[in-house]
Fold this protein.
Amino acid sequence: DWAEKNGYDLVIKPHPYAAGSLISGKVDPITRVILQDALSAPGVHVTTASIHRILRDSVAVFCINSGVGFEALIHLKPVICAGHSDYHWATHCVGGADDIDRIDDIAQPKLSAMETKKFLYYFLNEVLVDTRDGARINAKIDAAIAEFRQ
């Protein structure tokens, strides 16, 4: 409803493991009704195109907590997150549909391009840990324990 009211099309990409249909497998009954309603609305499209092509052509990305939201940040796209994600500092966070209208301009990322790049650098280099780097993993665990004990 929000997309139609604001002149946007809504493009939905099913999760790669959603076997052939957006509404298949283990889908919450309420979510099933919402998806069926959305799919019958004008301007709502389902695609299996490359996520990078979709991101390139998008105005903004809505997600709950998804790797696609992080990929959208890499593409410097605005991300609207309806769940707590590890990268929430760089997104517009919403608790429900009513919160979307509180975002001044959906086409503007929360952070500037430079701030987003700095966040991505920090997140990729300081927060995430290469699972092949045992010494770094141990250092992160030691740091977490020391922080917990404070």
